[in-house]
Each structure stands twice: as C-alpha cells, then as structure tokens.
Specification:
The chain is α+β, with helices and mostly antiparallel strands. 24% of the residues lie in helices and 23% in strands. The strands form four sheets. It has an eight-stranded antiparallel beta barrel. Strand 16 and strand 17 form a beta hairpin. Helix 1 (3-16) crosses helix 11 (326-339) and helix 2 packs across helix 7.
C-alpha cells in the first residue's frame, strides 16, 4: 500500500470521526510512507502538512525517559539510588519520597506517586518549584509494589535530568535527543523567549449536541513539560521510532542497545490494567499477534498522539490528530492495517456480555482516591453502577469485577478498569482504571492498605 492509499484512508476516517486534521507516518520493509489530511484549526486554519506540529501529550514521556537513560549510560544518574541523593529537598528518610523513590520506579510508573499534582501558585511555572512542593505527597503503595500511571513522577524525572545535565529540560532534550534525530524542537509550554517558534495545531472536541468540532485553548503548564510538553509531527515520531529499532545506523548512538532494551523490557510489577499489556522504563508494551509491540499513547487539550514500533519486524507507525475523537480515528487505522495483514499491537477494552449472569456490585460502591483525584462509584437510576469523575460514566461490570466505563455524551472509546479485593480481608479497597490506581477513601482521608 502506497502513500495515496494512506492519504485516502486518513481523510475517510477524519471525516467519519469529525477530526479536523491528522497525520500518519509508517515504516515497513525499509520504506517510509506519509499521509496528511485536513486543517490545523477547524474552518480557517492552514492545511496540515508533513511538517505541521501536533501536541504529543504523554508520548513526551518516551523522550524524557530516553534522555534520562542517556544520563544513566554516562554514569550521571543511577537507576536504583533513592532520588534524595540528587534532590535532598525531598528528604532521605524511610518515610520521605526522596528516601524510597528511584529513577527506575519513576520511569516505570511503579513509584506509588499519584497521577496528577497541582502545586498551585508560582510552582506551576517551574519544574524545580513543582518538585520541591512534592515533598509531602503520600504514596499509594510502596515503590516497586504495583503500577499507577503518574505524570508527577515524570516531572520528578525531568528535574533529575535538569540537575544532572546542568541545563533546563527543554535545552537538554533538544541537544541530547531532538537535534541529533533531525527533529525541529516544538513545545506546548516553554519558559524560554524564542520568537518565531514552531506553531502547534489547535486541539478540538466534539460538541455532543451540535456534532460540530469546537476548538480548545491549550492549558499546558511549564511545570508539566517533562510529562507532556513536547509537540511535533508524525514524521518526527517516525524518526524517534527508527532510532529505537536501529533502522538508521547514524541514529543508533542516541541510546545504546542496553538502554533501548531497558525501555522495552518488562519491569516487575508494572502491569497497567486498562492501558497496556505491560511497561518498561518509559515505553508501553502492547500485545500483537505473536509478538510484543512498544510505544506510547498521548492526549492533550483536544489532541491525540500514538506511536508503535516492533524491532524484529522493523515496523514503525505514528499517528497524530487535533481532536479528542482522534482516538476513534486511531482505532480505524489499526483495524484497516490489520485487515491488510499488518497487525499492530494495541490494547482493547474487555468485552463484557450485556446478557451475562447478574453480578453483585454493591461492595464496589464508594469513593476511591488517587492523591487529590476522587472517583465516586454509585448506583444509577437504572440500577447499574456509575463512575463520577469530571463526567459521569456508565459502568458495565463482569463476574470478575472487571468493568468498562462509557460516556453517553461523547464518542470516545470505553475505558477499562477493575475492582480489586484485599487478599487478607476480601474487601474491595482498590480500583484500577486506565492504568491509574485509586484506593478506597474514608471521608476525606485516604485509607492506606499497603
């Protein structure tokens, strides 16, 4: 299949799912193919080109992890030394974050840190101030014991990079990774004054009633940059993927074989239910047909971004969009490639039969906390369970307490999760959804079960 086919496919999927603009880059059998469609901003934006920049969202984490492992390779950071050795402000005692969290647990989301942290005030404008505000955070579980996706953890990793490199995260990522890969730097939030920077496509959401896409203002904050502040094109992501599979000899020096292996190898305990099959140091693991694929997914202020690669098959796929409904477009790309014989690894929500035996879900009702984030599970008017976060989701729960969560107001794919019993008490004290763990709360106090 050549580039015209992918251009047609991308245009068809974008129109079907109300996506204003999208890019695709695919490398198979030594040949790259590119496709673009639509506008950078609905109605009046410039046409999407191969060079157009889209927010990478959490795919940024794969870049941050690569730079961190470059510093590990050079002997500047040790993966298993508590981070208080580098950031003494976080405390070095057994009850301090700095005394128990390591770079390995940060990059694999096994640190026990909460998913999000809003320090407020001046701290949002500085990675360093953000990190110092983390000292009093409580861990969800002992580091290394389990998986819970954490943006806060990657901000900490970004500050470690700053300290060891002697420069800001932005300058370090540019000099050690982006420029060697031939990627023109672009960021969604950048504290440096740089006139004429590379603009980023506007994100959009789909109005549930009018079925029209609506632009979304970017809410990107400087302090979150190491977790989600990069932007670029699908072609840029392809360059990163080519370096990861060793397809371009001059790019193999970006990270040595040992570092690339650590990014892909399964970390003990890093099993993100509802997100991927497993996790390495900075990369997700996705099960394909007979082999494991690697990459990352990201969403950010009305944009979506996806990267997959398979080193043995020497295949790389990248897709960027500027709409929340880009998740549906991504599913369509995967489905069409699968029908054409290219089965790209991905995560699919479990299928829970609508007519299965009744499940007693009364013990699931309650509040679950992940830092300041609170999920409320309640009984809906129809007798089924609902999950209330920023929006109300309908839950379909299976016999093993696995569930899917869907929003009747959006066209986004269902989220996957499960309720987990404490093996000692049999009590449901944990909920996992989209790779994030939340413990049952008692009033306003989070119950620490580990």
């Amino acid at each position: 299949m050549d580039s015209p086919y992918y251009t047609w496919l991308l245009a068809e999927l974008a129109e079907k799912h109300h996506v204003p603009g999208a890019q695709l880059a695919l490398y198979v059998d030594g040949t790259p193919s590119y496709a673009e469609t639509g506008l950078e901003r609905a109605d009046n934006g410039p046409p999407v080109s191969r060079h157009s920049s889209f927010a990478f969202g959490s795919v940024t984490k794969a870049f941050t992890a690569t730079v961190a492992l470059q510093l590990v390779r050079d002997g500047d950071i040790d993966l298993d030394t508590p981070i208080a050795a580098y950031i003494p402000e976080l405390g070095g005692g057994p009850d301090d974050i700095g005394g128990v969290v390591t770079l390995r647990t940060l990059l694999s989301h096994t640190s026990g840190l909460q998913a999000e942290f809003d320090p407020g005030g001046a701290a949002v404008g500085s990675v360093r101030r953000y990190v110092h505000a983390c000292r009093d955070l409580r861990l969800l579980f002992p580091p290394g014991a389990a998986f819970s996706y954490s943006n806060a953890g990657f901000v900490l990793a970004g500050h470690l990079i700053e300290l060891m490199a002697g420069a800001g995260w932005w300058d370090t990522v540019e000099s050690l990774l982006l420029l060697p890969l031939g990627i023109e730097p672009a960021f969604t939030a950048d504290p440096r004054v740089r006139p004429g920077g590379r603009p980023t496509a506007t994100g959009h959401t789909l109005h549930p009633v009018r079925q029209r896409v609506v632009p979304i203002d970017s809410l990107a904050q400087v302090c979150d940059a190491p977790a989600g502040g990069l932007a670029g094109s699908a072609a840029d992501l392809l360059k990163f993927g080519l370096a990861q599979i060793g397809a371009v000899p001059e790019l193999t020096g970006v990270l040595d074989a040992a570092g690339m292996s650590m990014m892909r190898d399964q970390v003990p305990g890093a099993y993100p239910y509802g997100l991927a099959a497993g996790w390495g140091l900075g990369l997700s693991r996705f099960q394909g047909r007979g082999e494991m694929w690697f990459g990352h997914d990201g969403t950010a202020d009305g944009s979506t971004c996806h990267l997959r690669f398979q080193p043995e098959r020497r295949v790389v796929l990248a897709v960027t969009t500027n709409a929340t409904t880009g998740l549906r477009l991504w599913d369509g790309v995967l489905r069409n490639l699968r029908e054409a014989g290219l089965d790209i690894g991905s995560y699919s929500a479990p299928v829970i039969p609508a007519a299965g035996p009744p499940v007693d879900t009364s013990a699931c009702v309650g509040d679950y906390c992940n830092g300041d984030m609170r999920y409320t599970v309640r009984c809906g008017a129809d007798g089924g369970l609902q999950l209330v976060d920023d929006v109300t989701l309908s839950l379909r729960v299976g016999a093993d307490l696995v569930f899917t969560a869907t929003s009747p107001a959006t066209d986004e794919p269902p989220s996957a999760g499960r309720f987990v019993r404490d093996p000692a008490t049999g009590r449901i004290d944990l909920m996992e959804i989209n790779g994030r763990a939340a413990r049952r709360c008692a009033g306003n106090v989070e119950v620490q079960g580990v």
